[in-house]
Write a structure and sequence with these properties.
- With 497 residues, the protein is an all-alpha fold.
- It contains 23 helices and no strands.
- The longest helix is centred in the middle third of the chain and has 34 residues, at 277-310.
- The protein is globular and about 65 Å long.
- 52% of the residues are buried.
Amino acid sequence: MRLRQAILSSAVQQNATLLLFFATGVVIAHLLTPRQAGSYSIAIAAAGTVADLKDTALGSYVVSSPKLDDSLLGAAFGLSLTIAGCLTIGLFGLSFALTSFYGDEALGHSLRILAFAQLCPAVAFPATMRLMRAMRFGALLIVGLVAASGQSAVSITLAALGYGADALAWGYFASAVITAVMTIAYKPDALRLAPTLAGSRRLLAFGGWTSATLLVSSATLSGPELMIGRAVGLANAALFSRAQNLVSFVRNGLVLGMTKPLLPNLGERESRGVDLAPIYGSFVETMTGLAWPVYALLAIWAEPLVRTIYGEAWRATGVMMIPIAIAHAVTLTAGPYYDILIVKRRQRLLFTCEAAVCVFTIMMLGIGLTLGIEAAIWTLPVSGLFFAACYLAVLRSVVGYDPARLFKAWAKSLAATLVVLPVPLVLRHALTQGPTEILFGFAASGAISVATWVVALTLVRHELSVHVRGLIEDLSRSLGIPAYPRFLPQPSETDRR
């Protein structure tokens, strides 16, 4: 599968899944109070701090390895099962400590359910790796959608029956089981692979630093939620978690879906000795040009939208979304930093950066919490600037990108973002009297912004204009109308591959 096709399949999965989770979140917000949702938020934050260690670090090595054999995959499988077993035991024990620390029984019970869910991805590890190596993102699309549907159905049903935070935990568990079963169904031959710890030294050498990096990165993401829950209550933690999740839809839908196929592709390029600087610059321009305008639109409409869709109880979430959106937008200036450093096998450098960002973020948040939750959340954009500065400095030495090329990419994306702002700002202040007006105003803002954004991409000759051109030409051919104007940039060799 070509890179562009893989990106499309991955993006479809991410966005369809996120839309489903968004709809589920709206229903859940009317079934659970912020206090009930807060118990699950702290539980999933605690689990998330270490849960990615069970297969992500090993998966990065396997997916980006130039050659995959059964001995390598078997060793990775054995380590994945070992790590998952240790995490399950560790999270089970941690649940009792957190119950005492936060004074909440529901939190501990939810975390114990989440603990056992960690075993499922480890069982399906070989099948998942083979699907990713083959870039079969169409199959992964189906798996992701079915698992998300199962999670939503279980969570909503149990929440309606009065299970509180446990409803969300059981939904997570159901999703893990469905994902494992379906992934293995696509690659049943993976069941014949025996797990082993023989030959795992090379994995530990790589995975040790990568796992430590992921642990620190997860702590950076989960730390604010855990600190807010302890300092100002579980309800505020739930409000922050909702804001974080809503803003993350942009990153997870537009950016993560696009970059998922990037790691195996970069690994293949690196094995051929291809210079990675050009594709890095292209991805920075693409990621910022795609995400920045959406963050801007979301920040403008956040408060009235949250109030309309989720209800007055969640109103503070909309206010929190503005600084979070700014922080996310700033971090995208560094582009696909993780994939580049993993392919270049610079795990120690990656760990050093993540550790520095983690310490800075926690320190700034702690200072902010002494002044109140609003001040604490506004420290996140400052942490985002520190994040971008760290990785841009590191990537300059690793990949050797041209700073002028990067500044030009940011300038084009910023221009495309500024062009879309006037209409949403006008409609935001003109149409805020009722739910219907707010939803209409947001929809109209989005439609007009997309049209304006496409024109802006064309005028500044943005990297994305090539992809927009391809989509419009395909649509033109299907409808039998004249082709898209030829003055737009032609696809580069990188795009064709």
